[in-house]
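Table S7 (text form). Paired inputs.
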Amino acid sequence: EFGRGEVVWSMSAHVFLMDEHRKDIPALFFYKGTSPSEVQLSVGISRAVNVAVEDKVVSGCHPVIIRYTHNGRMKTLTIPDKFVEVYRWTHIVVSIDSVNMSVMLNGELIFTYTLQNELMINFQPGQLDTFLGTSPWEYGRSLTPSAWVFQLVLLGGTALEPQQALALMHKDQLKAWQENI
C-alpha cells in the first residue's frame, strides 16, 4: 500500500444489457451523487454502435461512459475502444487512487485517466445519494438502461488492480453459479 493516495476506492458490478441503447443521452447503471451539480461518480453506456471485428460486424456494442463533477461542472469520459455488448455479461470496475482513475472490463485494464481532483465518495445517513440506475434529478441528462446488475459493490480503501478485478469477477461468478444449483 506504499505510495497510495488518501482517497482510494473502487466500484465493481456485473452488467447484462437486455436491449440496445439507441438514445443520444447516456444510460447509467450506477449513480453516486447528491444533486445535479454534485455527481461523485456515475457509470453507464452511450448509444450502441456497430463494430468491425476481423471479418464480421458486431452490433449492440456500447462505449462505456464515466461521469463526475469538477468545480461544479459535469465531466464526461467516453471510452471508445472497448464495449459493453448486448446479451453478454460484462464485469466493470472503476478504481480511484488519489487522482488516478482506472477502468477495467472483464479483468482487462482498458482505460486510465488522471483526474483534476480526487473523487471523494461520501455517505450520509438518510441521504438519497446512491442509485442503481440514474437518479431522479438526472431527468433529461441520462436514462436507466434495460439491464440486470449483479454484485454492485463499493470498496473503500481499495483501488483494484487488473488481477484483483479478475479474481473478484471469478469469485462473483462462482457465487452466482453456486446460488443457482
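Next pair, protein 2 of 2.
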Amino acid sequence: IWCQVEAGLSSVAISWVEALHTTGKVIAMVAIGYLCDVKGPRLPLIVAFCILLGGLGLLSYQVRSSLSWPMLLTSAIAIGVGVGAAFPALAAACCFGVPEHRRASTYGAYRMWRDLGYAAGGLSSRWFQAHGGFAATTSTMTIWTALVLAVITARFKVRRPASEAEVSLSQSLDELEADGDG
C-alpha cells in the first residue's frame, strides 16, 4: 500500500520490484548454500548481512529523499540477495561443528528462534510505523541489522566439522583409554 500511496507506483511496477527481490533471494540461497558447504558459514554470513544492510540503507535513504525507480529496484534486489544469502548461512552456522546426533535438535531450536523473530519483527515494525512513519521504521530496521551483524561477527567462532579420519582416531583413542582403565 505504501508503494502505491506514497511512491505512486502502479501494481505492475510493484510486481516487478517484488519479482526482482524474489529472484535475487532464490539465486543467493543457491549460491550461498554452496559457498557455505565449501568455505563454512562465517564469510557468507558477513557478506549476507553487509548486502542486506546496504539494501536497507539505500531504501532508508530513498524514503527520506525522492524515490527513484532504479534505486528502488536496486534496493529490492540487494535486500532480496541479503535475505536469501542469510538463510542458508544462518542454517549452516547453527549446525556447523555440532555432533551429527544433535543437528536436528539444534536446527529445530534455530527455526523456533527464527520464527519468533518474524513475529517480533512484524510487531515492532508495525509499532515503529505507527509512531514514527515509514522512514523511522526502515532506519530502525537498518540499525538492528547492523547490531545483529556486529554481535554475530564478534561472538561467532567457526569450528569445522571433524573429518571421518579424525572421528575414527578420536574413537580409537577413547577405546584405548577405556581399555587402560579397566
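The radius of gyration is 21 Å.
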